[in-house]
Structure formats: structure tokens, C-alpha cells
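Quiz preparation item.
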């Protein structure tokens, strides 16, 4: 676990294994207010807004 955010809020990411583009909406911290290397991300599936928490190790920046 690192104390440094790899991704910033608003950045577009994707799971390393594929899937839809997602927007980072929050960097998750633990009870000691230290970064946990997890991110809450949001994405659309048709018109439905979804969200989930993903490990930073499972995400990559979306290629442009």
C-alpha cells in the first residue's frame, strides 16, 4: 500500500482486464485518513449510472 494517489478525481480509467471507461470519483482513505489504494469509480451502462470500488492495482488510465 502506498500513500500516494495514482489517479485523480475526474480521470478516465479502465480495468486492466477490460470493461467500460470509468470516471474516478473518490480516492478511498482508511480510518486514519491514509490513502488505501482504492478508488470509487462511476460509469454508465446504457442510461444507468453504476459505481464501484476498485484497487488501484486493477486500474489503468484509459488510452486516448
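Solution:
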Amino acid at each position: 500500500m502506498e500513500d500516494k494517489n495514482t489517479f485523480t478525481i475526474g480521470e478516465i480509467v479502465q480495468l486492466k482486464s477490460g470493461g467500460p471507461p470509468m470516471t474516478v470519483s473518490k480516492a478511498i482513505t482508511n480510518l486514519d485518513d491514509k490513502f488505501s489504494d482504492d478508488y470509487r469509480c462511476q460509469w454508465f451502462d446504457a442510461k444507468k449510472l453504476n459505481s464501484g470500488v476498485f484497487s488501484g492495482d486493477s486500474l489503468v488510465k484509459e488510452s486516448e
